[in-house]
Amino acid sequence: MKNLKTILLLVFFTSLLNRCSDHVDYEAIEGYQITSEIYFQQESDYDAALVGTYDPLQWLFFNIQLGAIASEISLCGGESATDYIGIQQIDDMTHYPENNVLRQMWQFLYEGVNRANYMEENKANIDFDGKDAMYGEVYFLRAYYYFELVKFFGDVPLFTEARLTAGEAGTLTRAPKEEVYAQIELDLQNAIGSLPDSQSQLGRVNKYTAYALLGKVLLYQDKFNEAVSALDNVIGVYSLVSDYGSQFLRFGENGPESVFEIQYSNQSNWYDWGCAHCSEGNYAIIMNGPRGWSGPEYAQGWSFNVPTEEFYNSFEEGDSRRDATVLDIEAFAATTGSSYTEGYDHTGYFNNKYIPRAGESGGQTELNYLTNFRIIRYSDVLLMAAEAYNRGGIDDGLAQEFLNQVRRRAFGDDDHDVSASGTALTDAIWEERKFELSLEGHRFFDLVRTGRASSLIPGFVEGKHEVFPIPQQEIDISGLTQNAGY
Amino acid sequence: MGIKIIKFQHQKIKLNMKKSILNLFIALISVCTGIQAQSITGSITDSEDGEPLAGVNIIVQGQNKGAVSDFDGNFTISDFENGSQLVFSYVGYKTLNLKISSTDQISQNISVLMDKDLSELDEVIVIGYGSQKLSDISGAVSTVNADAIEASSPVRVEDALQGQASGINIISSGSPGSKPTVLIRGITSYAGNDPLVVIDGVSASIDDLNSLNPNDVKSVNVLKDAALASIYGVKGGSGVIVITTKSGERNSETTFTFNTSVGTQEVVRTIDVLNASEYAAILNEASVNAGEGIVFPNISDFGVGTNWQDEVLVDAPIINHSITASGGSENTSYYVSAGYTGQDGVVGGGEKSFFNRTNFTTNINTDLTDKTKLLVNTNYTNIKGKSLAENGITSVLSNALNFDPTVSPYENGSFGISETITQEIINPLAQIDNTYNQNKVDKIQGKIELQHELMENLNVTSRLGYTYVDIYGKSFIPFQFYGSGHNQTNANPDLSPIVAVDSEGNITSTHNRVNESHTNYFNYTYELYGNYDFTVNENHNFQTVAGFSIGENKGSNISATNEDVPFNSWDYADVSAATGNATQQTSGSWQYVSRNLSYFARVLYDYDEKYYASFTGRMDGSTSFGKNNKFGFFPSASVGWVVSKEDFFDNIEVLDYLKFRASYGTLGNDNISPQFSLISTFPSYVFNGNITPGSSLGSIPNDDVSWENQVQMNVGVDTRVLNDKVSISLDYFKKTVDDLLFSPNLSLYLGVPSFPTTNIGSTESTGIDASISLNTSVGALEISSNLNFTTAENKVVAINNGDKYIWGAGYGIPYRNIVRFEEGYSPGYFFGYVTDGIFQNQEEVNSHAIQNGAVPGDIRFVDVDGDGIVNDSDRTQIGDPFPDFTIGWNLNLAYNAFDLSVFTYASVGNDIYRAYERNLNYTNRFASTLARWTGPGSSFDEPRVTFVDSNNNNRASDRYIEDGSYLRIKNIQFGYTFPELLTDVWGFDEVRAYFQVKNAFTLTDYSGYDPEISVGGVLNTGIDYGTYPQPRIWSMGLNIKF
How many whole angstroms separate alpha carbon B61 and alpha carbon B196? Predict the structure, then answer.
């Protein structure tokens, strides 16, 4: 009897131990998680990964904001002199390598690059119809991310084969920007080669989007002849809308003038402040709104990115773009009986292109504005073409024609046509870009690439401020070199 | 004539006893003559060596009579009533009660034998998979018994450990039912420092203590070093708190106890902020300094205005009731209890802030056969609670501190609003009114245990421990109005939704919102182990245990949100009642599971209770570890030497007892999740105006990840002097952790996936725990006192994550980081700028390093790195939230029927960072602003006020650091035990009434509510976000036995 008990106990014990051997193993499926080993096995996985590659575009709101704030036409603003210190410093040209805004931007852009590379890494897994066209989008996006990197930081680490692994942390060095540009051009040429003329869904890039971006990339390198041949493909494909201001409203989005827009939506009702950029909404919009606004049409915001009075006054008489671009808050409040409070650097003006408009957000209103960023508009293509034709000494007549198309729309007549040529025409084109494209993220980079930044931006140091500093954290971790002067 | 012998025999303590030193004989010879009792004489001697005992107190209970034995141990008491009870008490000896039979007349000599009270040292304590006499332990342990817990009557049992046990540091919050920070011997890990909690052998966590009724606790033992904790292996790295709950005694009649107390809580200190007219004057000056006009033309209109702190701080009740029944038959014992604790919040009051707990506990222990015992413990807890926002810029206290004092609490029947403050800060009364939430917890915790005696001294235990928790939560965000354009406003003044029409005529509207969520946790642990005790050659004693443990922890949650709650009413706030359409409804869920499998063994050895040694080892496997590192082994060993048992020691009379201890071993920490190369389906983008789901690589695995390996060394000494009246215990420890678990900061060009947790850091802690206790008496006054001293110095030795540091908590808008876990520093230190007074004039500004935006009247920040520019790289260590040392002092006095216990706690060297100021132009300010700089020489520490702070005077700096050292009388309890004559009449065995004051008095230089500040985490300690103060509690209570 006693032996039997002992035997039973032993049997029980050993059976438990056998059962236990895999007790501490764990498979991802237990948490309903998908691992990379079982991914990229069907077309829909590729579709999803491509959407994921577009996703970081939405995080680049500071790229657009800084294009204005870093220039002379707009101030940082905000609540106080210390509200968003990283942007205040960039406004004042006192920024240095420790800057949260720049660090986040750097990391977000590289996330875009890595997501595109992850698709490249898995390209050969399976074949399906339309795969080439799909990769056209991938290469376009990678080109866009690298172009932003090279615009902001100059020489940057360059990799294209695969997503980096943890083991590759700290192993890369900065590639000369010429190499980065060469890769961007290559990606865009590949994209042009495989992208369709049009896409069924608004928001996807097509062949002409790639041509337009290629033209811009070439112009940034002063490659005027090549820029002309790229941009020529886009001329006539799009058209200017008659009412300049309408394209910045909700229902002007993705219109006939729109070449490339970053898409946002107010449907996700995002309310996690811990990850503001995770929203499908545009987080930049709330920043640009009037503080404590109580009145019609607009909604309250944080009074950042405020245009200067000088800029407002520099618009020519009769230019319809002034009021579409800049909101004179005092006048508007007076006529509508509205109220607001003044923030730091109050100029009395607000960015009317990217401003919180009543009813255009959802859920947590700060995080869900639907307003798209207009990245490349047809008027930009015309002005780029004009500049390339003019500065390349190719055809000032065509340059005038493109420039004047833009001016006629702005003034509603041809009385304001420009007939200058040579460098006078160049100056006119550059000046036109300021009014046509202001507060859309171009100004600072236009001034830098045309060598006018130091004369126009207070505090701008030549040989230093053309590019922003490599984030200090990246230098500490990865041992990268710093840009000159920082 | 008759002779009566009264014999007291205490139960022998099990486990390898050789001789009973607990045996107690009292021989009482009484002579009955039939005449009324008048007097009694006798002599008192030590039961062991027969020495006469001088100075023994003899009291006739309930009568004002007594005597003290003379030099030869003789005593006489005369003129006392028949049927009286004599109480013999003597320090270091067990108190004796003798009842004189009512009909007996006593005039003869009686001999009274008193037993040495070695109970504290001979106390058998539970150490995990077994128990051991305290005097036999060669590791480091602290114990707290039921008396100490009762004396402090805490809401959570771990609060009673503060200062009562050396080596353990508790930082509590005043928020009802909230979890304190519990640190055993310092901070070693970034991943988590919560000790393991073991309740009646069942593993649990500090979080589980919210459901334990402190009244049910019999003892708490804190296992501090590797020798003791390594039986819990990878879970033991932060120490182990072993809790034993009460059980019944066999062969005893049912005893009922009823404990009740009712109290009120009050906040004693408030923070000095500007009153209305001061506020108006300062704002005028700030506006003028910024080149703008005057804000308030007529300051004198305002008076003192509204003191928002007075508006939100209320006196709130706290009540406790518990009833227990315990007893046992020959084969069964039982303990049954029911308890209720209700604590309302002093911030905002009990309507919106409370913690109510109801417990039912049943502990049954029965013999199934003469060799098999069944133990079933079951604890059901129900917790209901509501809470208001705490610890942040949007908390009620933050609003009370920052809101405009010129606004009235109510205006025209609704809450007063500020026209000038448009962000975050709101009328705190309106906030309280608009806060709606509730939380319900149902929890069953317990064990089913079989103990079987396989053969003599070989016991096998089979135990299933389990915890099941169901948490239901609901919150409602109603339409609320704090002024037009205020960013917390989501409704019109009449609380109708704000409807917006865009340029195309599309209508959108704001909504109210309700969220419901259900969370379940289920944990079980099954353990099977055998204990075998044996003796070889008479003096070689062994206690051994070996076994295994297998367990699983699971959790899951599901939640849903909907908008448009009918009538904007909490009564209708439910997802089912809300009328929002499909796009307004959102849902979410999560789940996790972790499993572990462990084998453990321990050998305790002693030679003649003189030389001790122990060996312990545990092998732990966990789902948390990487594929290549599934099992870790954690061994430890200890030795002990009772020097006073050596022959040569007999000559040393000063010391009654002396023991040395030393231990060395390893422990772990496994606060990580299983790792995979995971596809995240979170990314999405917008095509055609619709959100389109996408994917990306979300995380990268590390197959080599393992536990944090902790090496601990402990040396200690225990001694007793002055005839055993004073006991001293001293321990020195050193802990080093290698393989600290971190998510490394990899190159930013890797993008944003979550990087694998890796073993890449190390920390080191050293410290001293000391305790000294005294038991003595002066006449009828019995004194016992206990002083605990705890210190730990912590250092982060290495973090190989690239940056060499990790940010902890921060504060404010814009957000400022303040806490760092950094290589070369103590963990969780404060990091910021160093101030160096105020620039008095432009020359001082010019001669200082470049400090952008500085003008006279601004703070001069030190150019720490000396590069001529004041910027981020000049930030440095500016404080440490953890104390240099803490001291707990217990004093218990008893005089006849009266008892008094006073507990004092002191924390020295802890810094506090003041982080409750919002710093908007129109928010209120700290009163020190009144001493601001207004011109050269006017102030050397308080900067000018201005609406345009171009110098960023509010940056994180030592300006906000204060010394948070304090001494606090934590608890005073004064009790009176009613005479038996009276209680007999009432039908009770014992009735004690007491009066108690908790947090009676605090001595500190700190300017805030409470220098004891915790938000519950190591990297979030010592930051005063407007911390929830610990209230002073006045209460009265009754303990009744019947």
Answer: 45
Helices (H), B124-169: 146-152
Residues 319-378 of A with CB under 8 A from B: 339-341, 344, 357-360, 362, 366
**Nearest-CA distance A386 → chain B (Å):** 32
A189 to chain B, any CB pair closer than 8 A? The answer is no
Among candidates B693, B747, B751 on the partner chain, residue whose Cβ is nearest the Cβ of A48: B693
Q: Please answer whether residues B892 and B901 qualify as being in contact, where contact means their C-beta atoms are separated by less than 8 angstroms.
A: yes
Among the candidates A337, A353, A369, a domain finishes at A353
Closest-approach residue (CA) in chain B for A286: B487
Three-state DSSP class for residue B650: helix
**Tens of pLDDT, residues B470-509:** 999 999 999 999 988 788 888 999 999 988 776 667 777 8
Does residue A23 sit at the B interface (CB-CB below 8 Å)?
A: yes
* CA atoms of B16 and A20, how far apart (whole Å): 35
Mean pLDDT value across residues B87-101: 74
Q: Which domain holds residue A305?
A: 289-353
B631 forms bridges with which residues in the sheet?
B621
The band of B673, judged by pLDDT with boundaries at 50, 70 and 90, is confident
- pTM of the full structure: 0.81
Cβ pair B684:A168 closer than 8 A? no
In the predicted model, is pLDDT for residue A153 greater than 70?
Answer: yes
Burial per residue of B217-237, b for 16 or more beta-carbon CB atoms within 10 angstroms, e otherwise: bbbbbbbbbbbbbbbbbbbbb
pLDDT digits (tens, 9 = 90+) for B693-730: 999 998 877 777 778 888 999 999 999 888 788 999 99
Q: Say which of A165, A294, A359 has its CB closest to residue B502.
A: A359
Chain A residues whose beta carbon lies within 8 Å of the beta carbon of residue B394: none
Domains assigned to chain B: 1-117 (2.60.40.1120), 121-251 (2.170.130.10)
Share of chain A above pLDDT 70, in %: 95
Q: Where are the beta strands (DSSP E) in B752-812?
A: 758-778, 781-799, 805-807, 810-811
**Do A331 and A460 sit in the same domain of this protein?**
no
- Partner A contacted by B450 (CB < 8 A): no
Q: Does A312 reside within a domain?
A: yes
A54 part of contact set with chain B, CB < 8 Å: yes
pLDDT tens across A188-202, in order? 999 999 999 999 999
What is the model's pLDDT at position A12?
Answer: 67
Question: Which of B686, B752, B804 is most worth mutating to test chain A (most A CB atoms within 10 A of its CB)?
Answer: B686
Which of A:96-135 have CB within 8 Å of B? 96, 98, 103, 106-108, 110-115, 118
Same domain membership, residue A170 and residue A68:
yes
B1003 with B365: CB under 8 angstroms? Answer: no
Chain B residues whose CB is inside 8 A of the A261 CB are none
Pairwise pLDDT comparison (A63 vs B24), residue with the higher score: A63
Query: Phi and psi for B219 in degrees, rounded to 5?
Result: -155, 155
Residue B435 backbone dihedrals phi, psi, to 5 degrees? -95, 125
Point out the domain boundary residue: A353, A374, A400.
A353
How many degrees, rounded to 5, is the angle at CA B605 between CA A14 and CA B767? Answer: 100
Sheet holding B196-199, edge to edge: B141-145, B217-223, B240-245, B196-199, B202-204
Inside any domain, residue A336: yes
Counting one residue from A and one from B, how many pairs have CB atoms under 8 Å apart?
263
Is A253 within the bounds of a domain? no
pLDDT digits (tens, 9 = 90+) for B395-419: 999 999 999 999 999 998 889 999 8
How far off is chain A from B657, nearest CA to CA, in Å? 45
Which among A44, A82, A172, A367 is the top mutation candidate for probing chain B, defined by the most B β-carbons within 10 Å of its own β-carbon? Answer: A82
Domain assignment of residue A51, yes or no:
yes
Structural domain total, chain A: 2
